[in-house]
Design a protein that fits this description.
The complex is a heterodimer of chains A (about 525) and B (about 130).
Chain A: H1 2-9, H2 26-31, E1 61-62, E2 65-66, H3 71-83, E3 88-92, H4 95-98, H5 122-128, E4 138-142, H6 147-160, E5 170-172, H7 176-179, H8 190-207, E6 211-212, E7 214-217, H9 219-223, H10 228-247, E8 260-263, H11 270-291, H12 297-300, E9 303-306, H13 320-334, E10 339-340, H14 354-369, H15 384-406, H16 410-416, H17 418-435, H18 463-479, H19 482-498, H20 503-511, H21 516-527
Parallel strand pairs in A: 1-10, 2-3, 3-4, 4-5, 5-6, 7-8, 8-9, 9-10
Helix pairs in contact in A: 3-5, 6-20, 8-10, 10-11, 10-15, 11-13, 11-15, 13-14, 19-20, 19-21
Chain B: E1 11-15, H1 24-35, E2 39-42, H2 49-58, E3 63-68, H3 73-86, E4 93-98, H4 105-111, E5 115-118, H5 123-133
Helix pairs in contact in B: 2-3
The chains are: A alpha/beta (about 525), B alpha/beta (about 130).
């Protein structure tokens, strides 16, 4: 009894600010609102999962983040992962590509092919996906500032290879609003950036209805300093901004909401994360149904990729990241993620090795094959603790969303830099807490070892790859029909200036082998470039 | 110079070099330097070597600090060094932090970066190093 009282007296509060009790009972569950928002799996509001059978019908898609050097090297790694049982691809582009620059741009010097694959023209995409069955392997493009161009390239490449674009599945990250908060691969100012996201959603709804043109990322907002409840609440605010942009063009909600998807972070307290996802599923369903009037269940589904959590991994004792990755995969599975991508143990050092990527892949396969994670839907459902916390997390997210709305909405908060300043202040506080030992990180502020000799295989950056990439771009420029390229770029500029949907013109331009940098320049001629508000 | 007999605050330009968009750490360090009483000019993302040298010169800073997470630090610093030298800023304190692998530290020191604060560095160590070397 004394022990219990003593434990009860220690204030334990999760990162989202919710006090955690030493024991939960039926009374706690009743006090938090009971199971009113539970429903069955596949039933509104989808707290327990978006499908009735979940992983019993089909395990999550395994999609490790991959890409480096050039299209040919990346294609080889794609094939290695597929041969090892990976069921989707998640493409990493280099920073010039992500920022809408060609490999021969002076600003790209030293960065070509460094953190991902360099893509200049459709020619590179043809090489990157050569021999990969796009009906069987779905592809996720981690691209934002230049997303409209890379989506256009993907659709054009698939069409030329004979795939039916109307049946083509796949995802683009294409969440530009979060790039202004974290990750930073913006190109255009906020308003035209939002318009371009609208263009891609509107275009895909009409022409590539199975393709998911946006994956709204709480992930990077969390990495930038947000807590788990804020992460999800801000992501929903951003998703609503995209929905509003498409609705004002007259596209009904049920024609595009079903293709909006999400990308969330997993690091932190296991139960808080599981509750976050269960709460988020119900809240997103409620928003889309009640605020937007969606009628199709699929429109209300919070489909997500999870499993990554860079902030949770450590440079110190990197092999512990294998263990962390296993827990992150477990949390993702317990949370009903549709797709998983785990951070590799060597990521704090380098681009992951083949070996590290295979360990991540095997980690997911262990859960499927040995641990029984696919046998039963929402296995933590009904737990007094998890259900109570789910209700509390949902209430906290609703409070945060109401607060954003009361301050004029998320677009204004991002444009002014005030949302960035808030999460940055939290990141600073977190660092102080880590250094003071208040926020524990194993290997960092507790259980350290003196002599660290991490066994990490460094990914070598090869300057020759960049030169080859630039040569290939020059070759494409020499052999493509110059007049057609100039006309196509004019059309892109005109569509941007006229307020038309830019996607048809961008697709025509990529088919003429216009480069990422050239198409971006045509758009910036009309839209201008983003200027970052630096606020503290 | 010790903190006590300094007549004005240490002035730092903190820059994000190249195309790297990961600025969480840079902003955390900026706040820590400000909390230690320094004046910080944070450039924001996408700075060229020319832009870094120019702001350092115009603002008459004591410290030129870079935060790099995306691996292009050596290429960037090799282009920055001659610009800083030409601008007469070789007597300023140059430091760099972020995802800086150990095998690159010697090359960075040889280029003139006196302080290297890789992932895991403590904020107090960064401020103490600056205070001890300006």
């Amino acid at each position: 009894m004394n022990d219990r009282l003593r434990t009860d007296a220690i204030p334990v509060v999760n990162e989202s600010g919710i006090p955690i009790r030493p024991l939960y009972t039926e009374a706690d569950l009743a006090a938090s609102g009971g199971t009113a928002m539970l429903g069955g799996p596949g039933e509104y509001p989808f707290t327990r999962g978006i499908h009735p059978l979940m992983y019993r019908k089909q395990p999550w898609t395994m999609r490790q983040y991959t890409g480096f050097a050039n299209a040919a090297d990346t294609n080889a790694r794609f094939k290695y992962l597929i041969a090892n049982g990976q069921t989707g691809l998640n493409v990493a582009f280099d920073l010039p590509t992500q920022c809408g620059l060609d490999s021969d741009d002076p600003l790209a010097d030293g960065e070509v092919g460094r953190v991902g694959m360099a893509i200049d023209t459709l020619r590179d995409f043809e090489i990157a996906f050569d021999g990969i069955d796009l009906d069987r392997i779905t592809v996720s493009l981690t691209i934002n500032g230049a997303a409209a161009i890379l989506i256009a390239m993907y659709l054009a490449m698939a069409e030329r290879r004979g795939f039916d674009v109307r049946k083509l599945r796949g995802t683009a990250q294409n969440d530009i609003l979060k790039e202004f908060i974290g990750r930073g691969t913006w190109v255009f100012p906020v308003e035209p950036s939002l318009r371009l996201v609208g263009d891609t959603i509107e275009y895909c709804a009409a022409h590539a209805p199975k393709y998911s043109p946006v994956s709204v990322c709480g992930y990077h907002i969390r990495e930038s300093g947000a807590n788990p409840a804020q992460e999800m609440a801000y992501a929903f605010c951003i998703a609503r901004a995209y929905a509003d942009e498409v609705l004002k063009r007259g596209v009904p909600i049920d024609e595009f909401a079903g293709r909006l998807s999400f990308n969330f972070n997993i690091f932190g307290n296991l139960f808080e994360q599981v509750a976050k996802f269960r709460a988020g599923r119900a809240l997103w369903a409620k928003i889309v149904h009640e605020q937007y009037g969606a009628q199709q269940p699929g429109s209300m589904w919070m489909r997500m990729i999870a499993g990554g959590g860079g902030s949770g991994l450590t440079l110190e004792q990197p092999e512990l990241n294998i263990v962390r990755g296993a827990y992150y995969a477990l949390i993702s599975a317990l949370s009903g993620a549709q797709t998983m991508a785990l951070c590799c143990y060597d990521e704090a050092y380098t681009i992951p090795s083949e070996h590290a990527q295979r360990i991540s892949l095997r980690t997911m396969q262990l859960l499927i094959e040995e641990m029984g994670l696919c046998d039963t839907v929402d296995p933590l459902g009904g737990s007094y603790y998890v259900e109570t916390l789910t209700s509390q997390m949902r209430a906290e997210m609703e409070r945060i969303i109401a607060d954003v709305d009361a301050h004029g909405g998320v677009v204004g908060l991002i444009a002014s830099g005030s949302l960035q300043a808030q999460v940055s202040a939290q990141a600073y506080q977190r660092q102080l807490d880590i250094e003071a030992g208040r926020f524990r990180k194993v290997g960092v502020n507790c259980y350290r070892v003196d002599e660290e000799t991490p066994q990490v295989e460094f990914h070598a950056y090869n300057e020759a790859d960049a030169r080859e990439q630039i040569a290939r771009l020059a070759e494409v420029r020499r052999t493509r029909p110059a007049g057609a390229v100039a006309r196509a770029l004019d059309d892109v500029r005109r569509a941007a200036a006229d307020g038309a949907n830019t996607m048809p013109a961008i697709i025509a331009a990529v088919k003429a082998y216009a480069s990422v940098g050239e198409i971006t320049a045509a758009l910036t001629a009309v839209f201008g470039r983003y200027r970052e508000p630096v606020r503290f | 110079m010790t903190k006590a007999n300094r007549t004005k605050p240490i002035k730092v330009v903190l820059a994000k070099p190249g195309l790297d968009g990961h600025d969480q750490g840079a902003k955390v360090v900026a706040r820590a330097l400000m909390a230690a009483g320094m004046e910080v000019i944070y450039t924001g993302l996408r700075q060229t070597p020319e832009a870094v040298a120019q702001v350092a010169l115009e603002e008459d800073v004591d410290v030129i600090a870079l935060s790099s997470m995306a691996g292009s630090h050596l290429a960037f610093c090799r282009r920055l060094k001659p610009l800083l030298d030409a601008a007469g800023l070789d007597d300023k304190l140059w430091i760099i932090g972020g995802n800086i692998p150990r095998q690159d530290h010697d090359a960075l020191r040889a280029l003139g970066f006196a302080g290297i604060f890789a992932t895991g560095a403590r904020l107090g160590d960064i401020t103490a190093f600056i205070e001890g070397n300006v």
